[in-house]
Every structure is written in structure tokens, then in C-alpha cells.
Amino acid sequence: MDLADRRLGHLLEPIPGVEDRPAKAPQLGGVLAQRPKVREIHAAGEHRPLAAHDHAANRLVSGRLLEGGAQCEHKLAVDRVPLLGALQDDVTDRSAVLGCDYGHVDRLPALDDQKSGGRLVQIKKVGVLGAGLMGHGIAQVAAQSGYEVVLREVDDERLEKGMGRIDKQLARAVEKGKVEQSDADAVQERIQRTTDYSDLAECDLVIEAITEDLALKLEMWREVDGIVKPEAIFATNTSSLAVINQAAVTSRPDRFLGLHYFNPAQVMKLVEVVRAVTTSDEVFEAGVEFAQANGKLGIATKDKAGFIVNRLLVPYLLDAIRALEEGVGSISEIDEAMKAGAGHPMGPLALADFVGLDTMGAICEVMYEEFAERRFAQPPTLRKMLAAGWYGKKSGKGFYDYSGESPAENSALSG
What we know:
Number of helices: 13
Distance between the termini: 35 Å
């Protein structure tokens, strides 16, 4: 097997899979043999018949999702928007950081009518809680998809910082000639900034992307639940926490699910759609179709610690740290070996810095508590780095030091 040709870098994040629910249609071989009619999913809820050989990226066949071979091509698609700064410049293939050659979808029509199970779910206004690393990206993606967005933060400083990131990325897209200034302005105008929960009252979907702390999330949901209209859908962007624990503190556990976007949300194609035991069929289907309307690949997964990607990715990152501890190789040697030998676009230690060592540490705690296996436990080096406040790229220092023009190995971890 030629690992490089298969671009295993994509396996670090968006892992294609099969929806985890009973089939309502013939098996795949039978479906292909019958050359069925394929319907393209449009953001306006229209299903246009296509020839069976049409290569639309998102399809339904007798109610089941199929993934086509071609990428979605939309007006104003933006490819390879450089979001990673110096770190991106340091990798072998700048367009493939974390598999980001899927591209940056800048604008899709709003999903006016989402249909699932014969019932109508309308999502026109989306609330996003948190304007940090993930929240600002989710808000930008939703606004670019045509939705009205309410972006809420705890204070004006954090809110403006998040909006500044959005403005910077849109400006870069305009500079590259991928987006007209008028369209970038329209995206910004669709995002309402607020520090008041009451502005979320009329949202049809509310997605939380606050700190990965269960107590904080539960406190937030208790307050939001009493403000937002009862028919609205709630979603958590948690990367590891049980969705049901959050759903259970609301008055609408049947209208609660997980929508796990990946960093950077503007670029990464995958959204893990997490079904809690209480999530209704209607809400689950609406979540899949909302991800689709964002130009994403919505993969169904069960409400188990780590879901699909982090269940597989985190042990790999932790093993890289243990290899460093055991002297198998230096920081750069480990990273370069995996890039050249496994075809990964980014080495595991650089990737850990990019994900955020604090985020990874929190995921470790959840997964170790769930499975009680050593492979999920925090290695001593990770514990010491967290105690020192070295969270990776976001804090300026992790396995690499980002204070210079280009990342350099953290000398404190060498030798």
C-alpha cells in the first residue's frame, strides 16, 4: 500500500464512515446495480433529480446519504485560505494541513426548509455560544452559508477578538480574489454580536462552543434553556464529553445533539453528528442536513467518549509524546519521520500543539475515566507542560516555541 498516495493526512480528521442507523434502502451493491435516481440536496430544501452517474458531493439515495467523488463546487468557494500562519509555512504541503485541501466554502444558500422523517424542521437563525477558537469559525461558516447568526460571548473583549479573526480571514479571501468585498461585507452583516443570552431567544438552532468544562456547559445550558424558544434545537460542539449529560439538564433532551466541528472550522470538512440516547430522529436528521448545508460531511456517530476521530487520534498523539520521553527521537525527528514515512501532512507533536495541549489534556481525562486504559492517560511530559501553561500554538509555546519568525523546538524539552 502506498501510504503517501492515499493521503493519510486526511485520516487525522475527516474519516468517512457509514451512518449508524438501520438501512431503509437496499444494500449498496444492489443500489448501484439498479442505477437509482439520485437527488441533490440543496440548501433551500429542494431535491433536484440527477442522473445516477452525476458526481454531486452530497446525495440522498432512497433516504440514505452517499458521498460522491467530486468536491462541492459553489460560487465563492475559497481554497487554501492560510489560517495557520508560520506553522502552516513549516509543513511540507501547505494546502494539506490537517487535510484542509477540502477548501474553505465561503457561501452557500441558507437552508430554509430541512425535511426529515416527513416532518419539517426550519433553521434560519443560528446562535453560537463562544467566539473562541471553534466558536468564531462555526459562526463564520454558518453566516457564509446564508444563515443569520447570533454570536454570544461573556464580554466585549472576547467578542471583538473573535470577530477580528473572522474579519481577518474574510479580508484574506478578498485579497486573494476568491471573494468579492460586497460578499464579505454581507457575511459580516449576518453576524449579530452580543453578550446577552436574551438575544438568542428566537434562534432555531443554538450551538455551544465554550470551554471544554462540563460544569460550565451545564450552567450555561440551564440558563439558555429558559430563554430560547422551546422548539429550537440545541447542539454541543464538545470533542469528548457525553452529549446526554448536557441534554439531560435541559427541558428538551429530545431536541439535543452533538455537532462536533474540527479546527479550523472554516476549512475542515468533517462534522461528527452525535446522537444521544434521547435525540429524536427528526432532530438527528436536521443535524446531518445542517452540516450538509454548511458544505460539510456529516458523519453519524454514537455518544461515546471521543466519538470517532478523537478515539483514534488522541492515543496516536499520546504515543508520540511517550516516544519523545523514551528517547526514540527528538521533537522534530518524530514529526519529520511521520510526515515522510506515513504521508501525514503534519507531525504528531506539531499537531498536538495546533489542537491545543489543554484541549487534548481534557479529552484524555474524559477518555481515561471512560475506558481506564493507559493509552488514554496523560504522559508525565504533558502534565508538566499543562502545569507550566504551555498549551501549544495558542499560548505561544508547546512542543515548539512560536515566538520567532518560524516554529522552533522548545529547548526546555530537549535532551
